[in-house]
Structure formats: structure tokens, C-alpha cells
Amino acid sequence: MNVRYISISGNTRSFIQRLQRFAEEENEKNPNDLIIHAKEIDDNTPEEAETEPFFAFVPTYLEGGNGIDNGDQEILTESLRDYIEFENNADHCLGVIGSGNKNFNDQYCLTAKQYAEQFNTPFLADFELRGTNNELATIYQLLCEKWQAAVK
User: Fold this and answer.
1) Which residue in 133, 67, 131 sits closest to 100, CA to CA?
2) Which pairing describes strands 123-128 and 37-40: parallel, antiparallel, or unpaired?
3) Angle at which helices 11-29 and 133-151 pack, to 10 degrees?
4) What burial letters (b/e) apply to 7-44, b meaning 16+ CB within 10 Å?
5) DSSP-derived secondary structure for 93-139
6) Ramachandran bin of 150, using left for φ above 0, alpha for ψ from -120 to 50, beta for the remaining angles
7) Helix (H, G, I), strand (E, B) or coil at 33
8) Smaller CB count within 10 Å for the chain: N or C?
9) What is the full DSSP assignment across 56-93?
């Protein structure tokens, strides 16, 4: 299973690393379970054409405001947006998973929702900050279901 993500504060990176370990543990119990092939996207990542399906993980960083009638301009994750926009990459994106801080109310996961709308792909799930173990297990199961449905 392929994952493309961006991490500014390290929270998303931490979640992805834990998700990879969780997938490996699940695969040891059941060899048919899927493992995670993750690639972190940053300003220095060369754009390349994706040839297989992937999921995008994106945190929310917005400029002030309340996320609805002001402060809804996404910042800092443009390199992931550019990567998905490259050639036909958006066509391979199976969905977007968002992260953020629930203290930001309506801004929570707003960037991921913007990505989903822009790239016409579903907003699949969310987790707060580094995510809980329950969020990790739930998101892994969801990704497995979506991946298996897409590659059949």
C-alpha cells in the first residue's frame, strides 16, 4: 500500500512510522495483510509520475482566522499539493487522510478537505496530532479495505 505525506512538525511523520510498524505486526500475524510503503514529500522532493494507487496524508496549517470566512488559506503543504498535481498523479490518489489539532475548531483537517475537493478524491479519515492507537488501527483497516477494492 502506498502512502505519500508531508510533515512539518513531525506529527504526521510519527503517525506514518507507527502505521508502518503496525502494518508489519499485522502482516506477521496474517501474511496477507498489507504493508505500508511511505514516501515523505517536501520542498526538495522531485516530482515524479505515480503509476500505482496511493493515499495522501496531509496536516493542516492555515493562516489565522477561523477557517470558514477567514483564515482558510492553506500554508506550508504546497510541495505535496504540487506533487499530486504533477502529471496524472491525482488520478492515482485513492483518498486523503487529514491531521490537525481539534482546538482549532472549524480549521481541524481543513487542508485535507481542501485537497480532497481539489483532487476530486474522498476525505477518508482524520487523526489528531500524532494520533491514538485506536485511530491508527481504524485508519489502517480503512486503508486496507480501500486498497483491496482499488487493486482488484
Assistant:
1) 131
2) unpaired
3) 70
4) beeebbbebbeebbebbeebeeeeeebeebebebbeee
5) EEEEEEEE-GGGGGGTTHHHHHHHHHTT--EEEEEETT--HHHHHHH
6) alpha
7) coil
8) C
9) EEEE--B-SS-SSSSS--B-S-HHHHHHHHSTTHHHHE
**Is residue 45 classed exposed, middle or buried when 0-12, 13-18 and 19+ CB atoms within 10 A define those classes?**
middle
Say if residue 138 is exposed, middle or buried (CB neighbours under 10 Å; 0-12, 13-18, 19+).
middle
Instruction: Determine the average pLDDT of the residues in 128-151.
Output: 95
Q: Which cell goes with 123?
A: 476525505
Q: Please give the share of the chain, as a percent, with pLDDT higher than 70.
A: 91
Q: What is the total residue count of the chain? A: 152
Comparing CA positions, the residue from 24, 44, 2 lying closest to residue 147 is: 2
Spatial distance between the Cα atoms of 133 and 148, rounded to a whole number of angstroms? 23
Could you report the per-residue pLDDT of 27-62, keeping only the tens digit for each?
999 887 799 999 999 999 999 999 999 999 999 876
| Residue 126, beta-bridge partner list | 98
